[in-house]
Amino acid sequence: MSTPVLDAVELMKENGFDQLPVITAKGILRGIVTLGNVLSLVTTGRVTSDAKVSDVMFRFQTGSSKKFREITPETPLAELEHFFENNIAGIVTERLSIDEDRVAFLPVHVVTAVDLLTYLISKKN
């Protein structure tokens, strides 16, 4: 999360991504950084070129107004379709038990509405 925003933007540019999951050193999902949010914050002067990813990311945390919606490899397609009515990307995760009361999410894949559409079209052919 201490990664410079410029590094995250470069990674998005090199790979054609619009968003990246933000993880801890142990691989635990903490949030997402999006190209649109970075662009908005930079163009309005709310962050500078020396900003860190933690300054621009959407955080996934309990009690947050932007709650993390769990998507797993077993999530039904109909649920994904509904999810993408209000979201541009989702992070497919696996659960990791921390203790009896807490779980962490490990990111497996970023999925977009385009991914879902591509899959649905290929299944019809």
From TrEMBL:
Enzyme class: lyase
KW Transcription regulation (keyword) present: no
Classification via Pfam families: CBS
Keywords associated with the record: CBS domain, Lyase
Ranges of residues in domain CBS: 1-49
Gene3D superfamilies with a match to the protein in the record: CBS-domain
Coiled coil: none
Keyword flag Lyase: yes
Gene Ontology MF term list: cystathionine beta-synthase activity
Entry EC no(s): 4.2.1.22
UniProt-recorded name of the protein: Cystathionine beta-synthase
Naturally occurring in which organism (per UniProt): Coemansia spiralis
